[in-house]
Automatic annotation (TrEMBL):
Family: Belongs to the glycosyl hydrolase 38 family.
Subcellular location: Golgi apparatus membrane
Protein name in the entry: Alpha-mannosidase
GO molecular function terms listed in the Swiss-Prot or TrEMBL record: carbohydrate binding; mannosyl-oligosaccharide 1,3-1,6-alpha-mannosidase activity; metal ion binding
Pathway: Protein modification; protein glycosylation
Cofactor binding mode and count: Binds 1 zinc ion per subunit.
PANTHER family: ALPHA-MANNOSIDASE, ALPHA-MANNOSIDASE 2
Source organism of the structure: Scleropages formosus
Transmembrane domains' residue ranges: 7-26
Entry keyword set: Disulfide bond, Glycosidase, Golgi apparatus, Hydrolase, Membrane, Metal-binding, Signal-anchor, Transmembrane, Transmembrane helix, Zinc
């Protein structure tokens, strides 16, 4: 042991020298730069020198990393040989958990260029006429007075002669809102409604070329397209060419904007647009989102990047709508918070009234507007709830009816700044019967004809598509076509959460509803991305080796396509939201489940080719695959289980894939059938591994360690995997114990608790169980209560700062009023009540060489706090996992509440779609449920000098109800419908696994609440959490083959550049892949006011520059073509660019040929 320490010290000394010399170089570089403060565009020569220095530095960094990893390997090797010479480690010796330094990755100061810090440091520059949504919330009283016929608004009046000089221009936009699953499954809706709507559309639009129709969901459109003949397809194409049919947005679905991650939002848009390009040849220009439950600027950004210039939104808080209507700001340029100019602006129309149905779209009075929904004519299946039915238009009533409708149009126009009026005409699954087409189109045409033939009315009314409307609006609002600005329209920044449609009915329940599937969605996202990247790399490599025909590219590409579509479908605003019927949820779940299985196959097939040392030995066998994933999910609604690896004296290989663009040291755990394991790298270096017991969920109150010799064990070790690379480890059954067993301590011994001590583990049940529990790694120490097992204090060793960070659980009930919480709504019965378990919890403390953890088992939640003994990224945060089971509860919601000593006041921050951070304020003038917001990847609170971030691996609802608090709802069980059409409660709860990381960071600057960015460490920790390394097991049938690690990138990407996807594009003909990939990159915005010393970051920043020619190690980049986000448009910039550059926060797509 002593000898091993000496070697370690020796190794550390070498590496300190290396680090120090690197530091000196950096320092030198820094000095150079400060000496020439004017170096910039006026000194291109100096810039080149600087660039060369940076390049040089990068190379040195890479070399340094190599040296460091060599040192590390040698240290591991030496210490292993020392152990070898001494036999097995001293079991039972206190010091056996004492060598975390073996697992340490190098401490480094990461060179973050000052230029890269300017972005987050600059103040938010609000345009003079700009509106920031957080300011609007400050302003509003949220008093909800009765507004008369427009209940949530006000009386509108006008002068008859207002349009004398400029006539009113009315666009009536027929639309049919088709949910890809809600009360019926996607297929059932298609069979019963959607196919008839589309079939009738072809006939009825051709009858009169003045008719128009809008469609947006490509999931349905493509299914229908596959079923129709070429004649009908041509008819559809001619409707589109003539402008009668408009495809708006053109995504696979109309996605939810709260729970969705930007990876999946992009993916479903790309899938829809690619389908349109291949089949119809149309490029959508306008976004159309009438039903998502609140709106996010991330969607806006993606639409803009995809080449769209206009958009429409509908579900916005009624008080915000009213405020915007009073200000006449319902039409605005929606700008990103970081937008300095008009680059990110998109022209947005916010619908002013309660709903997108006909009663709430022609004008302020639903009783009148309903009379112009001709599907509700007497004798039909639906009627007007205001009890005044529509009348068929004839010569006798046309004047009276036209004037009545015109009055509504005129009133509506008073809420806007131009004389152009939009009147959507549609509802859910409308126009399914031929008779409805006739009723709507014939009656409206008579009304239009009357209006248009009476010049004294000063109106021009017609059917239009949404783009027809915007084409008229732009000149009317004097929008400059070049600068995309208007003297009439304001600029708005921020988001439209949390939505309320009436009273205190806030739609914050769906941020958490059906959390099991929100987690499953994220699992498919990360697996799909990982499979896309590996498949693209394999395909390019196969092509390079001229083995295209040997590799199952078509079969795998079909699996990927299906997975993209299943993931896309789940982004729908009744899918990921958890607001579908029980059997619809099962349908979605089954699709996600099958696609997870399929993309795992794609990953294994791709890794098979890539990891093979002798490519000549490659034979694909679908019945006997080389690689298999090490976990299995038994059913769509069950948690995955680890496969047990049966080890013998013949080595078994384990391939580990790192799907992130950073080199990585991460803890891998596999299940093995013996504690005696010899673990080695591919080159034969021994690796320290920890062995621990596998605990069954059923052992809640009776924990036994009996029958240990036959039980599976967890084998955990720190794997080192290059960016996007594969590493190979070998496992062999050893004669003696070569792994390091953990120590167990059980606290709060329950009467039923019985623990049999068994080799190789040491089990301790202390007599005095009142002392606080603590676990630690080289960086952090946490203390937990001995009675509850829950965290109380966290200490970061560097600087020795301690903070109170208490984790606890609370319950919410639902109100006793008529309206109660349901799938959409959160209507709690006041503040949360503390979770008080019926039984004292069982607390299990595990201390090991690779990780230590405290697991507390309550009746409704099994809560684990874990610290990884890694000096890199993994060691910087506390991992929190909760296995939640509230299946036996009645109208209850369970939340995890973190209470810290941070003085965060009423401020907190939540992410939007994992893409950007939105500052929040907890407002006493709003009900409790209004202060909950969606959390896709993180939420944080801060005070001067400290930030506490909760990172999440699934979307959930979050709030900070009191200073220093963060609270996340983990599951909800609700026995009733909440009157939004679903017709049921949420009672299909599953045992759900929630995963988080908690990160406490020192921040040197003061607090600027108007804008905020995560630190680089926080970004990368989030990426580790959402994209874990993936172990694959080599089948014993192939143990004669040799495998080689893979490092596809020449160097890891810059710290702030995220590879969103590397997605193989479909071939022009057939269902197989082309030779092109879509490279999608995101340059993250980050805050530099955090220490980056010893954080384990192994990358630097480069002002968003990427040397495309030098990106890959073996593959070469044949061409690079900049494209719009979804590949719809090719952008300027030429082919085969050597270097590309991204602006902060920018997402860019490139068409790339690899070989
Ligand atoms: Zn909908």
């Amino acid at each position: 042991m002593k000898l091993s320490r000496q070697f370690t010290l020796f190794g550390s000394a070498i590496f300190c020298v290396v680090v120090f010399s690197l530091y000196l170089m950096l320092d030198h570089l820094q000095l150079d730069r400060t000496k020439n403060p004017s170096s910039g565009s006026s000194f291109p020569g100096q810039l080149t020198i600087l660039q060369e220095k940076i390049d040089h530095l990068e190379r040195l960094l890479a070399e340094n990393n190599e040296i460091i990893s060599n040192i590390r390997d040698s240290v591991l090797d030496l210490s292993e040989s020392v152990k070898d010479s001494k036999g097995s480690p001293e079991v039972g010796n206190q010091s056996r958990v004492g060598y975390p330094e073996l697992l340490a990755s190098p401490p480094l100061v990461i060179p973050i260029q000052q230029e890269d810090c300017h972005f987050a440091a600059k103040p938010y520059n609000k345009p003079a006429d700009g509106v920031q949504m957080l300011d609007v919330y400050d302003l509003l009283s949220f008093d909800n007075p009765d507004g008369g016929v427009w209940k949530q608004g006000f009386d509108i009046s006008y002068n008859e002669n207002e349009w004398d000089t400029e006539p009113l221009q009315v666009f009536v936009v027929p639309h049919s809102h088709n949910d890809p699953g809600w009360l019926k499954t996607f297929d059932d809706y298609y069979r019963d409604q959607t196919q008839h709507i589309l079939n009738n559309m072809v006939v009825k639009l051709h009858e009169d070329e003045r008719r128009r129709m809008l469609w947006s969901e490509i999931s349905y459109f493509s299914k229908w397209w596959d079923s129709i003949d070429s004649q009908k397809r041509d008819a559809v194409k001619s409707l589109i060419e003539r402008g009668q049919l408009e495809i708006a947005t053109g995504g696979w679905v109309m996605p939810d904007e709260a729970n969705t991650h930007y990876f999946a939002m992009i993916d479903q848009l790309l899938e829809g647009h690619q389908w349109l390009e291949r089949n119809v040849g149309v490029k959508p220009k306008t976004g159309w989102a009438v039903d998502p439950f609140g709106h996010s600027p991330t969607m806006t950004y993606l639409l803009k990047q995809a080449g769209m210039s206009n958009m429409l939104i509908q579900r916005v808080h009624y008080s915000v709508k009213k405020h915007f209507a009073i200000q006449k700001t319902l039409e605005f340029f929606w700008r990103q918070t970081w937008g300095k100019d008009t680059t990110t602006d998109i022209l947005c129309h916010m619908m002013p009234f309660y709903s997108y149905d006909v009663p709430h779209t022609c004008g302020p009075d639903p009783k009148i507007c309903c009379q112009f929904d001709f599907k509700r004519l007497p004798g039909g299946r639906i009627s007007c709830p205001w009890r005044v039915p529509p009348q068929t238009i004839n010569d006798g009533n046309v004047k009276e009816r036209a004037l009545m409708l015109l009055d509504q149009y005129r009133k509506k126009s008073k809420l806007f700044r131009t004389h152009v009026v939009l009147a959507p005409l549609g509802d859910d699954f409308r126009y399914n019967e031929a008779s409805e087409w006739d009723q709507q189109f014939q009656n409206y045409q008579k009304l239009f004809d009357y209006m248009n033939s009476h010049p004294e009315l000063h109106v021009k009314a017609q059917f239009g598509t949404i783009s027809d409307y915007f084409s008229a609006l732009r000149p009317a609002a004097a929008v400059d076509p070049v600068s995309n600005t208007s003297p009439l329209l304001p600029v708005v920044s921020g988001d439209f959460f949390t939505y309320a449609d009436r009273d205190d009915h806030y739609w914050s329940g769906y941020f958490t509803s059906r959390p099991f599937y929100k987690r499953l969605d994220r699992v498919l996202e990360s697996h799909l991305r990982a499979a896309e990247i590996l498949f693209s790399l394999a395909l390019a490599s196969v092509q390079k080796a001229n083995k295209w025909n040997d590799f199952p590219s078509l079969e795998n590409y079909k699996l990927l396509t299906e997975a993209r579509r299943n993931l896309g479908l789940f982004q729908h605003h009744d899918a990921i939201t958890g607001t579908g019927k029980d059997w619809v949820v099962v349908d979605y779940g089954t699709r996600l489940f099958h696609s997870i299985l399929n993309v795992k196959r794609v990953m294994a097939n791709s890794a098979h080719w890539l990891v093979l040392k002798d490519k000549g030995a490659y034979i694909h066998s679908s019945s006997m695959p080389l690689l298999q994933m090490d976990d299995v999910q038994p059913a769509q609604d069950a948690l995955p289980r680890k496969m047990v690896l049966k080890l013998s004296t013949r080595p078994r290989s384990l391939v580990i894939y790192n799907p992130t663009e950073q080199d990585r040291w991460s803890v891998v755990t596999v299940y093995v059938n013996t504690p005696r394991v010899r673990l080695q790298t591919a080159s034969g270096h021994a690796v320290t591994a920890q062995v621990s017991a596998v605990w069954e969920e059923t052992t809640r109150f009776l924990i036994l360690l009996q029958n240990l010799p036959t039980c599976p064990r967890q084998l955990s070790f720190v794997a080192q995997v290059p960016a996007l690379g594969l590493t190979v480890y070998r496992l062999t059954e050893a004669v003696e114990l070569r792994t390091v067993p953990v120590d167990y301590t059980f606290l709060k011994q329950h009467e039923e608790l019985s623990v049999d001590s068994a080799e190789p583990f040491r089990v301790d049940i202390p007599q005095d169980d009142s002392l606080p529990i603590s676990i630690e790694n080289p960086l952090i120490k946490i203390w937990c209560s001995a009675t509850t097992g829950l965290m109380e204090v966290i200490k970061y060793k560097e600087g020795g700062v301690e903070h109170k960070v208490e984790v606890g659980f609370v319950w919410y009930g639902t109100t006793s009023n008529r309206d109660k919480s349901g799938a959409y709504l959160f209507l709690p019965d006041g503040e949360a009540k503390a979770y008080t378990p019926n039984h004292a919890p069982v607390i299990r403390v595990t201390k090991g060489v690779v990780f230590s953890e405290v697991t507390t088992t309550y009746q409704h939640v099994t809560h684990t706090l874990r610290l990884y003994n890694v000096q890199g990224i993994e060691g910087q945060s506390v991992e929190i996992s909760n296995t939640v089971d509230i299946r036996g509860e009645f109208n209850r919601e369970i939340a995890m509440r973190i209470t810290s000593d941070l003085n965060s006041s009423d401020r907190f921050f939540t992410d939007l779609n994992g893409f950007q951070i939105q500052p929040r304020r907890t407002m006493a003038k709003l009900p409790l449920q209004a202060n909950f917001y969606p959390m896709t990847t993180m939420a944080y609170i801060q005070e001067s000098g400290v930030r506490l971030t909760l990172l999440t691996a699934q979307s959930l609802g979050v709030s900070s109800l009191k200073s220093g608090q963060l609270e996340v709802i983990m599951d909800r069980r609700l026995m009733q419908d909440d009157n939004r059409g679903l017709g049921q409660g949420v009672q299909d709860n599953k045992i759900t696994a929630n995963l988080f990381r908690l990160l406490l960071e020192k921040r040197s600057e003061t607090f600027k609440p108007e804008w905020s960015y995560p630190s680089l460490l926080s970004h990368i920790t989030s990426m580790y959490l959402n994209h874990p390394v993936i172990p694959m097991v080599v089948s014993p049938n192939y143990d004669s083959l040799t495998f080689a690690p893979l490092s596809p990138l020449r160097a890891a990407l810059p710290c702030d550049v995220h590879l969103v996807n590397l997605r193989t594009i479909q071939a022009k003909e057939g269902a197989g892949p082309s030779h092109e990939v879509a490279l999608i990159l995101h340059r993250r915005g980050f805050d530099c006011e955090f220490s980056n010393r010893n954080m384990g970051l192994l990358c630097s920043t480069t002002q968003g520059k990427l040397p495309m020619g030098k990106l890959f190690s073996e593959l070469s980049v044949q061409s690079v073509t900049p494209a719009s986000l979804s590949l719809m448009h090719t952008l300027d910039g030429g082919r085969s660019q050597e270097e590309i550059q991204l602006k902060p926060m920018e997402i860019r797509t490139y068409r790339v040929q690899l070989r």
